[in-house]
Amino acid sequence: MKPHLLCSVILTVAGLSACAHHGSDFASHSDVGEHTSTTLNAYHWQLDRAVTASGNADMQWILPNQSQQPLTLTFNEQQQRLVVSGLCNPSGASYDVDGSKIHISQVASTMMMCPDESLMRYEQAVGQRLPQASSWGITRMHDEPVQQPSLTLRFQDGAQWVLKGTPTAETEYGSIGETLFLEVAAQPVPCSDPSINNRQCLNVRTINYDAAGLRQGQGQWEAFSGTIDNYQHTPGVRNVLRVKRYTQKDAPADGSNYAYALDMIVESEAIKLILVAALCTCQCTHDLPVVASYTTLYRWVGTATRPLPMVSGSAA
User: Fold this and answer.
1) How far apart are CA 267 and CA 238, in angstroms?
2) Comparing C-alpha atoms, which of 140, 164, 132, 145 is closest to residue 27?
3) What per-residue confidence (pLDDT) applies to 4?
4) What's the farthest any 2 CA atoms get from each other in the chain?
5) C-alpha–C-alpha distance, residues 193 and 179, integer Å
6) What is the pLDDT of residues 168-188, one digit of tens each?
7) Long-range CB contacts (within 8 A, 24+) of 194-201
8) Cβ pair 151, 166 in contact under 8 A
9) What is the per-residue pLDDT across 131-178, written as a single tens digit (0 to 9) for each?
10) Is 107 left (phi over 0), alpha (psi -120 to 50) or beta?
């Protein structure tokens, strides 16, 4: 069995805070107002701006790192679930709407340590903000395409976020798609691409579950040269994903006939690789030292004149 450190899924008291504008500012530029859950569920909502109750820009909710995926909210009416992405850990909550009113529960999140402490603090602040949302509305602006509406999320203290909508895969491809489970290995693998030198691709295999959710088997590992919408891989972290696969009507001649979109992260675990330096003056043994209270992966380093196998072991 592959050694690993399993990251537990915990319940965190969380909520979201992000960007919004003063209500009067939004109303003066909008031409269509909506409170239909159909539109709410048809888009991924990416945080664009935020304002305080007095109408001043609230920049604490805008990530300074442009390479970081923006905070994104996705509402699933069928499951009454809100998926929060663009943070360090995948997060989610239940929600319900009643006209223009909205109620969002506490947020459940995996609890892996973020490599960036500021991102961890941002995630925690977002988690504490989301249950404070009280109302919502969707508008289409005069100077924006019809395909990109804006969601205004209002909070109990009068502050607001404005989030830009991008169509979900169901909206874009016109179907509900086929549900698949993919296991993504912790480390990417080389893959062939004549247009990109030394390209790295996700290493994936399909997972089969029965009706009770019990794992029944898996396919062979293979390089995945495509992309999975809304999934950002972190090297060193193995994930099991529930994805939707859609048939592309106008697929490129040199590309796949399918498009993939992340539905949810089912399982996540960090694989920790430790290099143990052994200064040997004689032939080294391959006994593994007990160095941790969790199962992990070791490379036992011996003398340079001897092949060094990859071995695994567990702490007592």
Assistant:
1) 8
2) 140
3) 40
4) 80
5) 27
6) 888 888 888 899 999 999 999
7) 201/225
8) no
9) 999 999 998 765 555 567 999 999 999 999 999 999 988 888 888 889
10) beta
Fold designation for 5-167: Lipocalin (2.40.128)
Q: CB pairs under 8 A, 24+ apart, for 283-286?
A: 286/311
From 164, 176, 129, 149, select the one nearest 36 (Cα to Cα). 149
Q: What does the block give as tokens for 69?
A: 């995926």
Question: Which among 268, 308, 264 is positioned nearest to 284, based on CA atoms?
Answer: 308
Q: Where are the domains of the chain?
A: 5-167, 178-270, 273-313
Residue 110: its pLDDT value, please? 75
* Residue 169 Cα distances to 24, 140, 261, angstroms: 33, 20, 7
Spatial contact of 55 and 25, defined as CB atoms under 8 Å apart: yes
CA 222, distance to chain mean position in Å, is 22
H or E element, residue 118: helix 117-129
| Residue that has been written with the tokens 């909502």 in this structure | 45
